[in-house]
Amino acid sequence: MIDKENGGYGSTVNASLKHATGRYFRLLDADDWVDTEHLSGFLRELCACDVDVALSPYLVCNDQTKEETPVTLSELHAAQAGRFEDLDFSWTHLTMHAMTFRTDLLRQAGVHLDHHVLYTDCEFITQPLRFIDTYQMLTNPLYCYRVGREGQSCDYRQTVRHKDDLKTVIKTLTPLYDEQLPGNKSEFQYSQFLGLYTQLFNACFLPRDAAWVQLRKLCEEMKPLNPRMWDKFLRHRVDIRMALSTHGLTFPLLCVLQRKRLSYSE
């Protein structure tokens, strides 16, 4: 047990990593839990590992519908073990729920998460990327990821309130963005940035008092951080391109469409 001043999620991970003695390091969010039926099997598999990161299936558990959806990682088209850069990230967004890292690798990478902000799980899996070489696929679905609970960071009402947290995380990670990463590592890296940018800019269209000037200012703020990254992101966002090209005339309509698409209500 570590007794420390509350510095948010990131500070908890930093303190835990500092004191960790195990060969592997895994996160468990406060909203989530582990499937104890699979815990012993997971640990047996992990003890037999000698890789940088172990990847395992997990469950997405909806708090409202009580539905449990398995995420098998089959879209990675992965061999049982191999080089991380050979994985196919075209059709899946790999998250911390599936990843168990070698502790020494995290320390070698100098992993350090921001304090007092949400969304630092993206920092946790992106910062060590250039140090990851090998992976192994495990079979036990240990992690149970809770969704559908009001007040979670993945709830867009929270995203609207915590847009500055997303900007902080993006600004922390931007200096690490490297288009020269080998193999598919670059694709994995881009998927993490795309997820952060998507959440941030979706939040600009959702509030009832959403203002075109706020979207324009955010575009002006984010573009200089990494113009090439910005151009790649903009290719995915017809709505932002349309708002910019019409100088905000289409913004009210785009807000209505985005709220409907995301089933957003305040």
From TrEMBL:
* Top-rank taxon, per record: Bacteria
One protein family per Pfam: Glycos_transf_2
Domain named Glycosyltransferase 2-like: residues: 4-106
Q: What is this protein called?
A: Glycosyltransferase 2-like domain-containing protein
Q: Which species does the entry assign this protein to?
A: Bifidobacterium breve DSM 20213 = JCM 1192
Q: What is the lineage of its organism?
A: Bacteria, Bacillati, Actinomycetota, Actinomycetes, Bifidobacteriales
